[in-house]
Amino acid sequence: MVSRADAVPAPLLVLGGVLSVQFGGALAATLVPEVGASTSVLLRLVFAAAIMLVLARPRLLGHSPAAWRTVLLFGVALGGMNWAFYASLAYLPIGVAVTFEFVGPLLLAAAGSRRVRDLGAVAVAAVGVVLVSEVTHLPLSELSWRGIGLALLAGAFWAAYIVCSSRTGAVFDRLDGLSLAMVVAMVVVLPAGALGWHTVTAEHLLKGLGLALLSSVLPYSLELLALRRMSATVFGILLSLEPAVAALAGLVVLGQVLSGPQLVGMSLVVVASVLVLGRPRERSEGEAPAHLTETGA
């Protein structure tokens, strides 16, 4: 018997997840100026962790110390990725922030490769990043170095998230590892996030719930369904559209208009991502999607 989800083409499920994540990021950009990056991340993780714990009901007993160390590192990477990305939204348009953030998984995928295509893709991405940063026509004093640094830091955490996701998927069943990592991430951002909790209103709580659904629960579920019926290669190509979708979300939700050179630079990063992330590769059994969605966005 074919379910309703099975009736939807797998690429559409992935694109749905990408749209969900990036429009969730646009929603976050409206929340960060009001309560701060740390409190915004805490709101998202409180709801996301609660939902995932109810859905997954992870087993707490029977795990080795090494498994717990793995999930702890996974949670730290997850919390750091979300905090750094949300903090960058206070300084950069979301499309620009995601472009810089995407450098992390792109370099991870190309690391250690001796393929000329992969090395050329990194060079293309570097040109794209230069154009997106506007360093070619803006005085250095006018560049948002703090925003760029935070977005690159988010990319570094994203790369760590991908590595830890693979290792966690190998030692925890189903969604157990991800659910527990969300709790760890929540604890990591709790001290800083709690400082701004007095500013949280009912409207902010609703936005936090929206972020949890749009940026965590919905995209991960869609990707999980899609990966049952499509190759990791096609999955990687579709994820490469993230910077472009982020720019669209920024335009529609926030009215952020990027310049011509920035759009060209973003296109170069997307092309480079397709070349690197779209090459055939094997995914370990039990490994979570490379997103992810929990993406920084």
UniProtKB/TrEMBL annotation:
<feature type="transmembrane region" description="Helical">
    <location>
        <begin position="209"/>
        <end position="227"/>
    </location>
</feature>
<dbReference type="GO" id="GO:0016020">
    <property type="term" value="C:membrane"/>
</dbReference>
<feature type="domain" description="EamA">
    <location>
        <begin position="146"/>
        <end position="277"/>
    </location>
</feature>
<feature type="transmembrane region" description="Helical">
    <location>
        <begin position="260"/>
        <end position="278"/>
    </location>
</feature>
<feature type="transmembrane region" description="Helical">
    <location>
        <begin position="67"/>
        <end position="85"/>
    </location>
</feature>
<feature type="transmembrane region" description="Helical">
    <location>
        <begin position="175"/>
        <end position="197"/>
    </location>
</feature>
<protein>
    <recommendedName>
        <fullName>EamA domain-containing protein</fullName>
    </recommendedName>
</protein>
<feature type="transmembrane region" description="Helical">
    <location>
        <begin position="143"/>
        <end position="163"/>
    </location>
</feature>
<keyword id="KW-0812">Transmembrane</keyword>
<dbReference type="InterPro" id="IPR050638">
    <property type="entry name" value="AA-Vitamin_Transporters"/>
</dbReference>
<feature type="transmembrane region" description="Helical">
    <location>
        <begin position="119"/>
        <end position="137"/>
    </location>
</feature>
<dbReference type="Pfam" id="PF00892">
    <property type="entry name" value="EamA"/>
</dbReference>
<keyword id="KW-1133">Transmembrane helix</keyword>
<dbReference type="InterPro" id="IPR037185">
    <property type="entry name" value="EmrE-like"/>
</dbReference>
<keyword id="KW-0472">Membrane</keyword>
<comment type="similarity">
    <text>Belongs to the EamA transporter family.</text>
</comment>
<feature type="transmembrane region" description="Helical">
    <location>
        <begin position="91"/>
        <end position="112"/>
    </location>
</feature>
<feature type="transmembrane region" description="Helical">
    <location>
        <begin position="234"/>
        <end position="254"/>
    </location>
</feature>
<dbReference type="InterPro" id="IPR000620">
    <property type="entry name" value="EamA_dom"/>
</dbReference>
<feature type="transmembrane region" description="Helical">
    <location>
        <begin position="38"/>
        <end position="55"/>
    </location>
</feature>
